[in-house]
Amino acid sequence: QVRLVESGGGLVQAGGSLRLSCVASGGAFSINAMGWYRQAPGKQREMVAIIMSEGKINYADSVKGRFTISRDNAKNTVYLQMNSLNPEDTAVYYCYAQIFTTYLGAYWGQGTQVTVSS
Predict the structure, then answer these.
(1) Which residues of 12-24 are buried (b: 16+ CB within 10 A; e: fewer)?
(2) Is 116 within 8 Å of 14 (Cβ atoms)?
(3) Confidence at 44, pLDDT banded by 50, 70, 90
(4) Contact call for residues 18 and 9 (beta carbons, < 8 A)
(5) How far is 85 from 58, CA to CA, in rounded Å?
(6) What is the rounded CA–CA span in Å between residue 76 and residue 34?
(7) d(C-alpha 29, C-alpha 31), whole Å
(8) Which of 3, 23, 82, 95 has its CB 3.0 to 4.6 Å from that of 109, i.e. a possible disulfide?
(9) By CB neighbour count within 10 A (0-12 exposed, 13-18 middle, 19+ buried), where does 80 fall?
(10) Number of helices and strands (H, E) in the chain?
(11) 43 exposed, middle or buried (CB, 10 Å; 0-12, 13-18, 19+)?
(12) pLDDT tens digits for range 10-41
């Protein structure tokens, strides 16, 4: 069964940086899109960044110029480099992937907490 496992969250001061990683594993599959969503307390889950298999990237306006998404297809891994973090970036960050096994499905990681102190 396909699993997404995230790592790299934590506590950082405003202006600092963090790098999130997410690896997909389990069985035979191919990955279409991979990316990151986040959910802050009392708010809806929102897209942060998505990277398609052909390399097309979309960012939320709030993170453009500060966050960079990348992926290593050979390792089934997606990364999110987060720079110039501010307290508004505090949230649980979820890895997301569109994965084809016998069908195209949406998969989520368990989430990793990112806390930015002022």
Answers:
(1) beeeeebebbbbb
(2) yes
(3) very high
(4) yes
(5) 19
(6) 9
(7) 7
(8) 95
(9) buried
(10) 0, 11
(11) exposed
(12) 999 999 999 999 999 997 788 999 999 999 99
The three-state secondary structure class of 23 is: strand
To which residue do tokens 């097309």 refer? 56
Residue type, 30: S
pLDDT given for residue 91 in this prediction? 98
Report, in this order, helix, strand and coil percent for the chain, each rounded to 5.
10, 60, 35
The Cβ of residue 50 has, within 10 Å, a number of other Cβ atoms equal to 20
Q: Which residue has tokens 């368990």?
A: 110
Residue 52 is predicted with a pLDDT of 94
pLDDT of residue 29: 87
What single-letter amino acid sits at 76? Answer: N
DSSP string, 45-101: -EEEEEE-TTS-EEE-GGGTTTEEEEEEGGGTEEEEEE-S--GGG-EEEEEEEEEES
Amino acid at 65: G
Closest by CA position to 66, among listed 12, 7, 6: 12
Tens digits of per-residue pLDDT, 76-118? Answer: 999 999 999 999 999 999 999 999 999 899 999 999 999 999 9
